[in-house]
Amino acid sequence: MIPFNRPSIVGREFDYLRQALEGGHLSGNGPFTKRCHEWLESAIGCKKALLTHSCTAALEMAALLLDLGPGDEVIMPSFAFVSTANAFVLRGATPVFVDICCSTMNIDARLIEGALTTRTRAVVALHYAGVGCEMDSIVEVAERHKLSIVEDAAQGLLAGYRGRPLGSFGQLGALSFHETKNLISGEGGALLINDPRYVERAEILWEKGTNRKQFFQGQVDKYTWVDVGSSYLPSELIAAFLMAQFERASAVTDRRSRLWNMYHEAFAPLEAAGIVRRPIVPGDRVPNAHIYYLLARDLPARTDLLQALKAAGVDAVFHYVPLHSSPAGRRFGRAVGNLPVTDDVSDRLVRLPLWTGMSEAKVEAVITAINGWAAMAGLV
Predict the structure, then answer these.
(1) Domains and CATH numbers, the chain
(2) What are the residues whose beta carbons fall under 8 Å from the beta carbon of 38, sequence distance 6 or more?
């Protein structure tokens, strides 16, 4: 069986876990947490990074920092994970779903302006599969209409758009270190803060709504409850594991890119024959090889392909069920018109196994299984 994903040990994870245990600090915001913050701030160029226990938590912090509430609207793609919407729904805001580009699966920047109302406060730029959104257009619209941008860069660490790292464009951004991501800690995430106005309050929210940091810096004689907040910090064990992953970030990206390119080259003939469509990466984007997917011709073809892969011992999966057509999406949000690309892509997309420790032989086995499916189906 070739699993869809398998977490990979890439460096000094066990050594750093031992150091954290021996250091006597296992709760959040210890030495390894600080090292992770410094690494992220250097890699992305953000004003401040704060580790969180999940990307969901980072998005929830973003919603709190923007003071969103009932009556406010946030424009976002429907082709997204539920956390992207839930973070804002929890504050009482309304997700406004728009369609995606058929090329990158990212929010169609041309549709944002048509979705604006007097209640619109923010736009979510979700970078699907580690390929950046059209950030120049999104930033231009947001600045003209005085909107905040939240980058859902859960899949986008170490990817870039026109020479800048993803996560560096919006006022706020969110990363994921879930075990399915490129750099992992099992569970985990980070809030990225590019607008310095949000730094001080973010640290308070992060520390359960207290001014604990100011206390330890000697700015106040005791710390107390000063704002809303929650327990967003991950443990020092999570940070220790993650720091070992960060140290091997370039090697991880290189390895994943090698496997991604194997898939991409192998499926060029099937794309030329009109059997599948491969990912499209615009020339001004630097991808991070997070996901390799194929688009089948239609839903029956996708179903047939998944069954053939399962029979061959390959665990492939489809991706998001559109939020706008989900029960909660209809209850808490609204769509702007029909979303034909979202509906179409959701029916046709297949994600192939791809993880850092995956061997070339396993990639070749997946390729063989897909070529075999195409031949058996009489498609080639």
Answers:
(1) 13-247 (3.40.640.10), 249-376 (3.90.1150.10)
(2) none
Residues 160-174: what's their mean pLDDT?
98
**What is the model's pTM?**
0.96
Residue 275, pLDDT above cutoff 90: yes
Rounded-to-integer distance, Cα 289 and Cα 362, Å: 17
Q: Amino acid identity, residue 50?
A: L
Report the greatest alpha carbon distance in the chain.
76
* Terminal alpha carbon distance of the chain: 26
**334-335/160-161 β-pairing:** unpaired
300 burial type by CB count under 10 A (0-12 exposed, 13-18 middle, 19+ buried): exposed
Tokens 């000697």 belong to 218
CA-nearest of 139, 42, 118 to 73 is 118
Q: Is 170 helix (H, G, I), strand (E, B) or coil?
A: coil
CA dihedral 150, 156, 161, 167 (to 10 degrees): 40
d(CA 104, CA 106): 5
In three-state secondary structure terms, 25 is: coil
- For residue range 31-54, list pLDDT tens digits in order: 999 999 999 999 999 999 999 999
The predicted pLDDT at position 380 comes to 61
Q: What are the backbone dihedrals phi and psi of residue 199, each rounded to the nearest 5 degrees, phi first?
A: -65, -55
